Amino acid sequence: MTQIDFYILPDTTLEARLEFACRLAETIHAKGFRLHVHVEDEAMARQFDEHLWQFRPESFVPHALDIDLNMAAREAEHADDVPRPPVTIGWQDAPAPGIEALLNLHPEIPEWFSRFERVAEIINQHQDVLVTKRECWRTYKSRGYAVRSHQLKGVS
């Protein structure tokens, strides 16, 4: 069964949430997992992409937007010829098979979340995030998933 982890930040800003998401993506990648980051829309995907490039000068998390990978696959003679990085970012459909972990930055749970071994959710103290992620917590629990919380302090 999919393991669900909620990371609870003391901060209220979107910036702090994205910063922690970058650090978590880096950690998941370093552990050898393939990761998909699910976001709300293209603007947020591009914002997270930019954060991954800049959040720590010494860090490199190989990643790409799903939309760019899909376009490259359409242009290639064989879709399998397009290499997929270990971290993908998307907001539309489920990512390609073979990805073990999902970092869900979208307010809602994607219907295909259970295909992953692990799902990470990040909560900060912004009211909108608190409301939507509490609902996600209840949904996971009502479906019988074991949900773990990680209360973080001073993660900046």
UniProtKB/TrEMBL annotation:
Pfam families from the UniProt entry: DNA_pol3_chi
Any one of the GO BP annotations: positive regulation of DNA-templated DNA replication initiation
InterPro entries from the UniProt entry: DNA_pol3_chi (IPR007459), PolIII_chi_sf (IPR036768)
One Gene Ontology term of the molecular function aspect: DNA binding
Domain of life: Bacteria
Keywords, comma-separated and alphabetical: Nucleotidyltransferase, Transferase
E.C. designation(s): 2.7.7.7
Top class in the EC scheme: transferase
Protein name listed in UniProt: DNA polymerase III subunit chi
Organism: Cobetia amphilecti
